[in-house]
Amino acid sequence: MVIRGLAAGVAMLGTLAALATAGPAATALPEAPPRVSPGLAWGTCPPDLSRALRCGTLDVPLDHTRPDGPTTSLGVSLAQATGSKVGTILVNPGGPGGQGMWLAAAVQRALPADLRAAYDIVGVDPRGNGHSSPIQCVDTEVFDKAPKPDPVPRSDDDKQVLLARARAYAEGCAARAGAMLPYLSTEANARDLDAVRAALGEERIGYIGWSYGTYLGAVYGHLYPQRVDRMILDSIVDPSPEGIWYGVNLGQDIAFQARWRDFTRWAARHDAALRLGATPDGVEDSLARVLAGVRAAPAGPVGPAEVYDMLSGAMYDDDGWTPLARALRAYLDADHGPITKLYEPPSADKANSTAIYTAVECADGPWPRDWAVWNRDADALHRANPILTWPNTWLNAPCQFWPVAPREPVRLTGAGLPGVLLVQAERDAATPMIGGVAMHRALPTSRLVTVTDGGNHGVFVFNPNKCVADIAHAYLRDRTLPASDRTCAAGAAPDPDTGKDR
Questions:
Q1: Is 48 a catalytic residue?
Q2: Are 190 and 258 in a shared domain?
Q3: Residues 15, 76 share a domain
Q4: Which of 5-9, 301-305, 370-374, 463-467 has the lowest mean pLDDT?
Q5: Both 324 and 444 in a single domain?
Q6: In terms of domains, do 38 and 187 share one?
């Protein structure tokens, strides 16, 4: 899926990452021992996680068809119910490649007191990811050294250079993580979740997933409908087998361009404060001048690839619009400080997220093995959708060379599932509205809540909306779904004119 919130181009949206870094400042749990789980010994957590959590590890089969074969280790976290527990909710932030252990504390903090009292919230770092036997495909300090190659090719020779880079990435994955690659997929992640459920001693379990986590949750519900207590899917991947994942990424290229147009209209309305242009075309011209400038002479580590990363990252959440706009304007005023401050250097965590993103997407469904297909589609899309098309093409191009044969995508039926709550922002770029509609169609017991005119990725918990929260909290309390599909109005866009971004 197609999550590109980090500068490296994958994993969680910026809002989630910000909450993750805020985690360790949370209040620690009291010294009373945590509730005992049959297959998990809870203890202290790694230092990068909130002190409000308890953590443990669980060994699961590397190959779930061979339960007595080799195993891999999962990191699991617990935000314990503060009162009389009535259930457990597993949470996943998306990706593929998003770490989940930190998320348990963030979700618990966001819930009202009665739900914090009622639910254990459990986070899992998916296999190969984070604290779960992490893999790497490349030496990120070399491969991702900035400025990276310009992702928008000017010639066939440029394309061949970038294609060779994609091949090298796939070969690096085979060399460094080849033993793990055949066992990285959404189905394997879903079966791991059921192993966690069993280790917790729960007959049924709740689930909340965002972005790729919606697809993971839906696949879990397809495999184990009798194990699902309740389920919220927010910012929804189109689960249609025909689109997993090549077609989904093509659709995302179009949706990011539409969200960029939202940005240009917003920036033009606030031209007095932002000075990027009084019309959307004027804002486009400002971006063109920035890209021309960093192509001619990078601003420190920032070349065109890094600018495209900043653009796509800001389209996940409009909290990022004002910093992006001010950085572009400053660059045009010969001040490179703000744009270099937005640059996020390579890190082991980002490289791990990229590796998992690539491994899972390449494995989950078929990808073209003929470069002519990729080239035709990217050339055609780029003409009208230049913000994401070529950067996204190169992010996924290792799948053309992937050393593991893809699986047949899961065809969801929704059979046996209880009522499912779906939440979707109408103008979400990372998971376009078509995904919410398709998931609603695939899960007959679902209700769809649409945030009209909203474009932020991740609504419940991460972009608070009282209308959505009221519906979700009622559902978590007693499984009450709306009698029919609902709409909720989006919040106000940032207002740089007053200095108030929200």
A1: no
A2: no
A3: yes
A4: 5-9
A5: no
A6: yes
- Catalytic residue of the set 131, 222, 270, 457: 457
**Is-catalytic flag, 457?**
yes
C-alpha–C-alpha distance, residues 271 and 496, integer Å: 9
The predicted structure's pLDDT at residue 5: 37
113/259 same-domain check: no
The two counts, helices (H) then strands (E), for the chain are 18, 9
- Within 13 Å, how many C-alpha atoms sit on residue 72's CB side? 26
Catalytic option among 211, 312, 353, 446: 211
Say whether both 272 and 304 belong to one domain. yes
Do 262 and 391 fall into the same domain? Answer: yes
CB 228 within 8 A of CB 417: yes
Res. 34 pLDDT band, cuts 50 70 90: low
Q: Which domain holds residue 11?
A: 1-135+183-201
Does residue 409 lie in a domain region?
A: no
The tally of domains found in the chain comes to: 3
Q: Do 311 and 262 touch, CB atoms closer than 8 A?
A: no
Single pTM value for the model: 0.94
Q: Which of 131, 382, 428, 440 is catalytic?
A: 428
| Burial class of 113 by CB neighbour count within 10 A (0 to 12, 13 to 18, 19+) | exposed
Nearest to 74, CA basis, from 120, 39, 124, 121: 124
Active site residue 211: yes
Q: Which residues contact 109 (CB under 8 A, 6 or more apart)?
A: 26
